[in-house]
Amino acid sequence: MAEKFDVVIVGGGLAGLSAGALLSSKGKKVALLERGMLGGRAVTLSIKGFNFNFGAHAIYARDSSVLRTFEDKLGLHIDWQDFDPDKAKYDIGNQLTSMPANIVGLFRTKVLKGFDKIAFTFEILKTMLKMETGHSHMSIAKWMENQNVNEDVKEMMLTLASSNFFTKEPEKIPSDVFFTYYRRLFATNKPVAYIGGGWQALISEFVRVMDENHAEIMTKTKVDSITWENDRIKAVHAGETTIEGDEFIFAIPPKEMVKIFKETKIDHLVSHYAAYKPSVVLVYDIGLSKKIDVPFTYVYDKKENMFITDISHYDTTCVPEGGQLLQATAYLRQDEVGNKEIVDQYKEKVEKLYDKHFPGWRDKLVVPRVSVKAVVQEIKWTMSQKPMPVSSTDYRNLFFAGDWCEGQGQLSELSFSSAYEVSKLIFEKE
Fold this sequence. Notes:
Layout: E1 4-10, H1 14-25, E2 30-33, E3 44-47, E4 50-53, E5 59-60, H2 66-74, E6 80-82, E7 88-91, E8 96-98, H3 103-108, H4 114-128, H5 140-146, H6 151-165, H7 175-187, E9 192-195, H8 198-212, E10 216-218, E11 225-229, E12 232-238, E13 241-250, H9 254-257, H10 267-274, E14 279-288, E15 298-301, E16 306-310, H11 311-314, E17 324-331, H12 340-357, H13 361-364, E18 365-377, E19 398-400, H14 412-427
Parallel strand pairs: 1-2, 1-13, 2-10, 7-15, 13-19
Antiparallel strand pairs: 3-4, 5-9, 6-9, 7-8, 11-12, 12-13, 14-17, 14-18, 15-16, 16-17
């Protein structure tokens, strides 16, 4: 007879792990099933003494992040390494200038001048005071057109959106999503933070909590079908293994759910979201034998829509003694993904950006790592793509969590916030 659990979680990424840790800590009997490595897209890989992080390593607006809520409720040990906005620069061609990531940077930047800077500050102020919230049916580009926002201010708003939403098409972002995000970002004292030890340190903490609360973690376990009866899921099946449960959380992307839910009541729903396009970037990391000293830790090339972060400045555990780990990210349009000629052009542009800002890096190179189509968010929020709901109206005990779901913030924050919301819905059933 199959063992029965209070909650069965399919998927061991950030969403599945955080939900599993919270639910098990409150007495739920939890089983978590993962087909591969724990962490999903958020994993850390060690090569020649350098720890490379897959997935967007940064946590945005961390003092209001749902991860902080998990930290407090679960007693997680997180080594927060806060980003220094004073060392964040925009490359505007012939010079570097301060990045307007906060109010101080806004007044220092040379990207905007005179009246334009005042106009942009006014837009930010309206956002912070909730005087402007945007509309779900209106893109930020359309909103700016309706408001007669001048070209320089418009360009600044879209540049900020590009760098924080990891997209080359920021004009397609729904205006309500845009303003909600920036209200949090400009109101926070900690706009960006990294985790010492990378994603693996956080994954290990979630696993520790689950182990302490006797949750069962099954890796190399790929769910391929479900059993349902009327309006409830009864069990999931992984090969010849059957796992029964009272509540089920699917924390795997819709593209992976399609086969599992084929010919069920929600076949159409899953297929709909599986057809959506992700946010995809090219990531080009380099591990150097010796640190190259520069007066910044982040530089964004405004013209090319790409940036470099000195990861090792914030996480000294990711490099051998005296080494340096730099990460360059270039935004791709969907039609550029898979085009080898275009991708090679991006790689050349990244190398030129390294040449410009970290001269001599080629002589110190120990190991490069290039991901030509790294998914940073499974569903790119645009006017034509809306996030997936966290619960099912067809199956009362079925929930969804991940960065493709409705929630707070962007990137990993969507995973944490959707997992937290799903956990609350399950607790409310008691």
